[in-house]
Write a structure and sequence with these properties.
Layout lengths: L1 H11 L4 E6 L3 H16 L3 E2 L8 E6 L4 H15 L1 H4 L4 E6 H5 L1 H7 L5 E3 L7 H9 L4 E3 L21 E5 L1 E2 L10 H5 L3 E2 L2 H13 L4 E5 L8 H4 L4 H9 L6 E4 L9 H9 L16 H7 L4
Parallel strand pairs: 1-2, 1-3, 3-4, 4-5, 5-6, 7-10, 10-11
Antiparallel strand pairs: 8-9
Helix pairs in contact: 9-11, 11-12
C-alpha cells in the first residue's frame, strides 16, 4: 500500500507524456487538435515518439470498412507499447469507439479508456483515473461541437488551419452512418466562428479551410436557412484572412447568392469541393443523396 501511494505521488509531481494518433478526415483532425489542447491544459507534455509516451490516444475513424480496419490496426499497434515501451494508459476516442464501444472494450482488453465523439473534454481526467488502475468507458452522447474558447493545438502547417463550422449531418444517405455517429446537424454561431478565425490569424494563420459534413447546409438548424454565404462575408472581412477554402459542399444548396459571394471576394478560392457522384443522377438515387 505504501509503495503504491509513493508511486502515485511521483506521477503527480512530474509531467506525464502523451502521444496522439489521428485517423480519418480533416474534421477528425480538428477534434484531435482539441483533444491535444485539453491534455496541454491539464499539464501533459506532448511527444511524437510513442515509445516515450506514458499515455497514448488513438482518435479513430469508423466511416468505411478500410478506415475501421486502419483504426483497429492502429489501436493494436499502440497497445504493444504497453509491453515494450513506457505506456501505462491506452485511450481510444472518435467515430469507431462511438459506433462500436461494446465490441472494442470486449475484444481489445488493452484499452484502458474509451470515449466517443462528445466526451473529449473529459479525456484527461479519465486518463488520470486510469493511471490509478481500472478501465474507464464513457460513450453517452453525440453532437459535441467545439468553440473558440476551447484549447486547440494546431497539427497543420503554421500558415493554414481547418475550421469546423458544424457537426453532424441533416442528410440521410443510404450508405452513411455519420448521422448515427455524429448526430444531426449542429451549426456553430457565426460569432463563434469569426472569433476563432481571428484567434488563428493572430497566431499567423493565413489560409482558412472551412469544413463540415455538409458546408452548404450550414445554419439550417440555427438560423432556419442556409447561411454559408452570410458566414463567408463575415470571414472575408477579417483583414488577415488571405485565402478561404470551402470544402465538403452539396450542389442542391448552392444558390446565386453563394456564387455571388465567391465571385465578389478574391480571398475565397474559386472552386467548390463536390463529391464526384453528383454527376450521376442514377447513382445519387441509389445513395438517397440529393442532387
Amino acid at each position: 500500500m505504501i509503495v503504491g501511494i509513493r508511486r502515485n505521488l511521483r506521477l503527480q509531481n512530474k509531467k506525464l507524456k502523451m502521444g496522439l494518433i489521428s485517423l480519418g478526415c480533416a474534421k477528425n483532425l480538428v477534434d484531435s487538435e482539441v483533444i491535444l489542447g485539453f491534455f496541454e491544459q491539464a499539464d501533459f507534455t506532448r511527444i511524437t515518439n510513442p515509445e516515450e509516451a506514458d499515455i497514448l490516444v488513438v482518435n479513430t475513424c469508423g466511416f468505411i470498412e478500410a478506415a475501421k480496419q486502419e483504426s483497429i490496426d492502429a489501436i493494436l499497434e499502440m497497445a504493444q507499447y504497453k509491453d515494450r515501451g513506457r505506456c501505462r494508459v491506452l485511450a481510444v476516442a472518435g467515430c469507431l469507439s462511438r459506433r462500436y464501444a461494446d465490441e472494442l472494450t470486449q475484444e481489445i482488453p488493452e484499452i484502458d479508456v474509451l470515449v466517443g465523439v462528445a466526451e473529449y473534454p473529459l479525456l484527461p481526467d479519465l486518463v488520470k483515473k486510469a493511471l490509478n488502475g481500472g478501465k474507464h468507458s464513457l460513450v453517452q452522447q453525440c453532437g459535441f461541437i467545439y468553440n473558440e474558447n476551447m484549447p486547440r493545438v494546431l497539427a497543420t502547417p503554421p500558415f493554414m488551419a481547418y475550421v469546423k463550422i458544424a457537426e453532424g449531418c441533416a442528410n440521410r444517405c443510404s450508405y452513411c452512418a455519420i448521422p448515427l455517429i455524429r448526430g444531426p446537424l449542429n451549426s456553430r454561431p457565426i460569432a463563434s466562428i469569426t472569433a476563432e478565425v481571428r484567434q488563428l490569424c493572430a497566431k499567423g494563420v493565413a489560409e482558412i479551410n472551412v469544413i463540415a459534413q455538409d458546408t452548404t447546409a450550414y445554419g439550417l438548424d440555427l438560423y432556419g436557412k442556409p447561411s454559408l454565404a452570410d458566414l463567408l462575408e463575415q470571414l472575408v472581412a477579417i483583414p488577415d484572412v488571405q485565402w478561404l477554402r470551402v470544402l465538403y459542399a452539396y450542389p442542391n444548396l448552392i444558390d446565386d447568392r453563394l456564387l455571388e459571394v465567391f465571385a465578389t471576394h478574391p480571398q475565397i478560392c474559386r472552386y467548390l469541393d463536390l463529391p464526384l457522384q453528383h454527376a450521376d443522377s442514377e447513382l445519387l438515387s441509389a445513395m438517397r443523396r440529393r442532387g
